[in-house]
Give the backbone structure.
Amino acid sequence: MGFSFVVLIPAVLCTMGCLSQVVMILIAKGLQGDFSAKTFLQVLSVAQVAQQLYIMYLSICGTLGYCFLMESDMQCKFQYHMSVWIFLTPDWLAVPVSVDRLNAIQFPVWYKQNCTTKTAWYLLAPLVAMVGLILVPISAFIVRIDDGINVYCSNKNGIVENMVGVVGIPPILAVSVATLALLYIIHGRNKKSNNATDDKELIIFKVGS
């Protein structure tokens, strides 16, 4: 009973997360026009589905007590690398999504001419590959440990968690800056629009008087 309950909760949550991302994929696919936001949103949603499915896998295998193959150092390194890659990729993919929206608002003509569903891949492919390559030297610190009782994968000197944290900080900062810039631009345009409306109403009022 306890096992079923422990597994059921994350399974339900992850399933709900996956379904919400599937909806986002369908919405992005149904958008009219040829612009990069469609590609960015679909790829981000796919990455988040993969992340949710992996979390579900970890919750199930963690309960069973067996998640990874640990026959060699290489298996430990590879599995750790893939795990962190799956978790960090959505954060990095959120960067082009936020910058894309900023460009669409600030430079609409240039955006329409240059940012298509095809050109989006020129950024996405190198970005995903870059994240994977950055994690390669970090994964080198992961080793297989056999203490005679347990066999497990661990990291040397506890340095890996700090290095992974450093890799995860830049996308958060980039998304925050792009979001603040977007809000500032929208606020400025709304303010100008309101001022123009007030001036127009004042002119009408004076003419009517």
The longest helix spans residues 159-208. Confidence is low (pLDDT under 50) at residues 205-209. The chain is about 80% helix and 5% strand.
